[in-house]
C-alpha cells in the first residue's frame, strides 16, 4: 500500500504544484452547504449540516489561500508558465469561492448576528475587486499569451467571465439586507446589476462558440469532458441573480422612479429567469449526454471533476428561487431532486480527491509538466 505523498519527490512539491483550480473545491463545497440549508422541504438538522459545510469551506479557503500565496513567494518562476497556460483560467475560481462564503454568511449569520452584515459587506467588496481583475486580466492573457484554437475550445473558456455573474448575483442578494434609506443598498444593487449584466452579456457569445465547437468538432476529449457542465454555471447563476435583482428592485427602489417600477422590474426579471433556466436545462442534458458518450473509454479523474458541483449547485439555487417566488410545487420537486444529486456528486468527487491527496497524485500542475503535450492547448484542469 502506498504511503502518504509517496508519489511526490518532496513535500514541498505540494506548494510548487498547487494550482488555483483547488478553489473549485470551495465553490462546490460552499454551494452544496447553501442548498442543503435551503432545502425546499425542511427537515431537522438541515441548517446544521449546511453550517458544517460552511465551516469546512471557510477552513479550506484559508488553507488554499495560504498554499497559493506560498507558491507565489517560494516559487515565483512558476507564475509565468501559469499565465501562459489555460490553468490561468482557474484564477477566476478564487473570487467565486469567496462568494459562497459571503452568501452563506448572509443566509445564516446575518439573521442572528448584526456584525454578519458588515462582514458580508466587506467580503463582497473584496470579491468585487478580484472579479474586476479576473474579467479584464485573464481574457488579456488568453489573447496575448496563449494560443487557443476553435477546434480545441471548450466550456472552460467561460471561467474568466463567470465571476462577474456570481459576484453580481451576490451583490443583488446582499442589497436586500442593507438599509434602503441609506446609500449602500442602492449602490450595491447598481454595481451588482451592472456586473451581472456584464457577465451574462459576455457569457452568451462564449456559450455560442462552445455550441459551434460541439457541432463542428464533436464533444471535448475525456480529460476535459467534465467542462461540459460549465455552461450550466452562468445560466443557473444568471437565473438566481436575475430573480435576486428583481426582488431587490422591489424592496430597495420600489416606486422611487415611477409608479409600479419595482413590481414591473421584478416581473421582467422573472420572465428572463424562465428563459435562462430553460437554456441551462438544455446544457444540463447535453452535459450528461457528453459524459455518457465519453464513458465508453476511460475518463480519468482530475480536479476538473469538481466542475460538476458548482454548476449543478447554482442551477439548483436558481430553480429554488423560481419555486419560492412562484410558489410552484413542480419547481420545488425539481429542486429537491437536484439537491440530492448534488450531495451524491459532492461525496463521490470528495472521496476520490482525498484518496489522491493521500498519495500526492493530485499535486501535478499541468503548466509545469515537461515536455509539453500537444493537448496542452486544451483546458486541462489537473492531471490524474
UniProtKB/TrEMBL annotation:
The membrane-topology field of this record reads: Multi-pass membrane protein
Chief subcellular location equals membrane
Gene Ontology terms, cellular component aspect? plasma membrane
Q: Which Gene3D superfamilies match?
A: Voltage-dependent anion channel
Cite the entry's keywords alphabetically: Cell membrane, Membrane, Transmembrane, Transmembrane helix, Transport
Signal peptide limits: none
Q: Which GO terms describe its molecular function?
A: sulfite transmembrane transporter activity
Subcellular localization, per the record? Cell membrane
Q: Where are the transmembrane segments?
A: 21-41, 47-69, 89-110, 122-143, 155-176, 188-212, 271-293, 305-324, 330-351
Q: Report if keyword Transmembrane is assigned.
A: yes
Similarity comment text for this entry:
Belongs to the tellurite-resistance/dicarboxylate transporter (TDT) family.
Which protein is depicted? C4-dicarboxylate transporter/malic acid transport protein
Q: Which organism is it from?
A: Basidiobolus meristosporus CBS 931.73
The organism's lineage is: Eukaryota, Fungi, Fungi incertae sedis, Zoopagomycota, Entomophthoromycotina
Amino acid at each position: 500500500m502506498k504511503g502518504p505523498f509517496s508519489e511526490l519527490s518532496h513535500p514541498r512539491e505540494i506548494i510548487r504544484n498547487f494550482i488555483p483550480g483547488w478553489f473549485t473545491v470551495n465553490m462546490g463545497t460552499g454551494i452544496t452547504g447553501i442548498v442543503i440549508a435551503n432545502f425546499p422541504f425542511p427537515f431537522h438538522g438541515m441548517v446544521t449540516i449546511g453550517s458544517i459545510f460552511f465551516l469546512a469551506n471557510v477552513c479550506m479557503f484559508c488553507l488554499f489561500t495560504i498554499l497559493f500565496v506560498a507558491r507565489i513567494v517560494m516559487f515565483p518562476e512558476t507564475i509565468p508558465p501559469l499565465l501562459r497556460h489555460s490553468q490561468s483560467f482557474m484564477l477566476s475560481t478564487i473570487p467565486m469561492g469567496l462568494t459562497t462564503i459571503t452568501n452563506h454568511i448572509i443566509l445564516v449569520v446575518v439573521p442572528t448576528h448584526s456584525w454578519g452584515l458588515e462582514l458580508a459587506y466587506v467580503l463582497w467588496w473584496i470579491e468585487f475587486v478580484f472579479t474586476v481583475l479576473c474579467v479584464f486580466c485573464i481574457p488579456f492573457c488568453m489573447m496575448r499569451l496563449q494560443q487557443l484554437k476553435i477546434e480545441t475550445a471548450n466550456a472552460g473558456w467561460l471561467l474568466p467571465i463567470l465571476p462577474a455573474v456570481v459576484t453580481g448575483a451576490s451583490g443583488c442578494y446582499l442589497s436586500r439586507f442593507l438599509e434602503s434609506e441609506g446609500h449602500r443598498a442602492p449602490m450595491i444593487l447598481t454595481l451588482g446589476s451592472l456586473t451581472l449584466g456584464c457577465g451574462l452579456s459576455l457569457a452568451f457569445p462564449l456559450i455560442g462558440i462552445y455550441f459551434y465547437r460541439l457541432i463542428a468538432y464533436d464533444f471535448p476529449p475525456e480529460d476535459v469532458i467534465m467542462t461540459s457542465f460549465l455552461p450550466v454555471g452562468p445560466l443557473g447563476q444568471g437565473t438566481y441573480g436575475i430573480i435576486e435583482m428583481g426582488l431587490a428592485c422591489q424592496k430597495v427602489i420600489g416606486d422611487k422612479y415611477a409608479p409600479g417600477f419595482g413590481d414591473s422590474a421584478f416581473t421582467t426579471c422573472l420572465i428572463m429567469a424562465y428563459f435562462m433556466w430553460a437554456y441551462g436545462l438544455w446544457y444540463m442534458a447535453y452535459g450528461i449526454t457528453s459524459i455518457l458518450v465519453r464513458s465508453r473509454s476511460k475518463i480519468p479523474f482530475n480536479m476538473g471533476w469538481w466542475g460538476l458541483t458548482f454548476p449543478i449547485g447554482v442551477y439548483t439555487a436558481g430553480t429554488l428561487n423560481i419555486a419560492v417566488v412562484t410558489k410552484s410545487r413542480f419547481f420545488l420537486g425539481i429542486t429537491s431532486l437536484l439537491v440530492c444529486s448534488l450531495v451524491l456528486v459532492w461525496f463521490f468527487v470528495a472521496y476520490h480527491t482525498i484518496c489522491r491527496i493521500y498519495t500526492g497524485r493530485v499535486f501535478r500542475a499541468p503548466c509545469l509538466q515537461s515536455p509539453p503535450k500537444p493537448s496542452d492547448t486544451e483546458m486541462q484542469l489537473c492531471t490524474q
